[in-house]
Amino acid sequence: MSSRVNGVNRTVLTLLGAALLVAGGLGLAYSFGAFGGRERPLLPQGMRDFAQDQAWFWWAVAVVCLLIALLGLRWLLAQLHTDRVGRVDLTSDDRDGLTTLHAGALTEAVESETEQLRGVVGASAHLRDRRGRRLALNVDLAEYADIAEVRQSVEDRVVAHARQAVDDPDLPVDVELRLSASRSGGRGLR
User: Fold this and answer.
1) Is the pLDDT of residue 65 over 90?
2) Which of 8, 45, 115, 177 lies at 20 to 30 Å from 124 by C-alpha?
């Protein structure tokens, strides 16, 4: 899930939670007589009688509640959806058999090979499938690292090996080089 989606989720949920908290607090205060002098019900008698006298009213409330629950379920399922790939099908001809590559094996190999480069203190890789397969590689560099040398090594060796492993010479690879967060406060280089 992208950081934009996460930000929207946090904002919407915070605003919704604050609105519901304020509404609940005001309703509770009103029912205890905070805005008048005596205790009184939140809903006037006419509205309570209407709900009691109309048989369809509670069915309409149930339908609205069901719709809200279905929207909530849809939102939860959307949160579980990721664009990461679990397996890569490398089968070129079904008669020769089925060949699959676990994405975790590929990304671990890419991370391991990247971490062996001089000046690299850490790496993380993810194989994503958003409008086509794409490899995302984040490389954490030491302060002494030669950025041009690391970039060249990543492009010439690591990316070439990853493309060879998935048998796709045109596999798009996004490489982000950044100073190690532990030593630089998280400043990134692109």
Assistant:
1) yes
2) 8
